[in-house]
Amino acid sequence: MSNAVKIEMAELRMVQLPLLTPFVISTGTMTHKTFPLLILRGDGIEGVAEAVMDPLPDYLEESTAGALDLLRGAFLPKLIGQSITSPADVTGLLAPWRGNRMAKAVVEMAVWDLWAKSLNLPLCRLLGGVRDQVEVGVSLGIAPLDDTLKRIDVAQEAGYRRIKLKIARGHDLGILAGVRARFPDIKLTVDANTDYALSDLSTLQKMDQFDLDYIEQPLAFDDIFDHAKVQKALRTAICLDESIRSAKDARVALEIGATRVINIKVGRVGGFAEARAIHDVCAAFDAPVWCGGMLESGVGRAHNIHLATMANFTKPGDTSSASRYFERDIIHEPLEAVDGLMPVPKGPGIGVTLDYDRLTEVSEVIETWQA
């Protein structure tokens, strides 16, 4: 596995893919998935990845405009013409620049795909994956109770292994009471997307009565310390998402009791190298992990599926069927779960190929680089 692949060309696109249904969370409503798509080419193959930052910094600090500036002005000019012997080479290339983990991740992930294809191996094998299908659940946006109950019915009929409800102040205890009255036994979690504060502790404590598997990211996006206070006051597990950017963050959070479960998003933490390190730290603490989603297209969805094959991904992830979100994806292969299980795409790399006809309809080329 030491053969090198030369990165001869890069293409950076901006994609705007319409969602079938608006997705509502505590920080806003999304009608389109808008993201940078990176295509790397070399030795007759291509590696692809999508970035997960939002147009405006309402999930984390990074924004699309800032990421594009870094990719165009710094990261990709440094990468083009390089011979990569492993994705670890990219870490060194990007090391001079601090933070900006989402922008770094799209480069690193595309290199992983390219490298795996150069070896004619599926990505999951190189990551140390142990399964050929992964358990998945659904994430349901904020909606009235009747609509939520109907969506849960549909998800249950499809066999999804977990229901996650987006919550916010004022849209929490009532919706949970209504859902539990109708569905007393389903595996249920909630995601607050940072909408609560320590002053809401009594509300969070009342969520203990609803037999939740975990409460995801109730407090601020950059907080670990105060989450420990919340976790100490609750029977229900706290799951951290936005707060965990690195293996060090995961270690600190687990050491001080700020969390019992961690959501790993490869695009959030800077790529697969850091995602694997977080996975291993959590395994050392006997803390399960699961793979979160950012409403990715088939490209990001495939990357997530391969990541979730690793051993400590023991809770259902967010990578549900692409047809729940998009009328037509930007890849040829359908990524569809059956009875709550998502098969790992077959073939080398991430196992999916770009549908360039569709891609032309929903994207524009920002820039290309040639070695």
What does this structure look like?
The structure is a single chain. The protein is α/β, with parallel strands linked by helices and 371 residues long. It has 2 domains: 5-121 and 353-370, Enolase-like, domain 1; 125-343, TIM Barrel (Alpha-Beta Barrel). The chain is 34% helix and 21% strand. The chain has 13 helices and 15 strands. The chain has helices spanning 64-79, 88-94, 101-118, 123-127, 145-157, 173-182, 201-206, 225-233, 247-255, 266-269, 272-284, 298-307, 356-362; strands at 5-6, 9-25, 28-42, 45-50, 83-84, 133-135, 138-140, 163-166, 188-191, 215-216, 238-240, 261-264, 289-291, 341-343, 363-370. It has a 7-stranded parallel β-sheet with strand order 7-8-9-10-11-12-13. α9 links the parallel β11 (238-240) and β12 (261-264). α9 (247-255) runs parallel beside α11. The longest helix has 18 residues, at 101-118. It is globular, with a radius of gyration of 20 Å. It starts with a strand and ends with a strand. The mean pLDDT is 96.
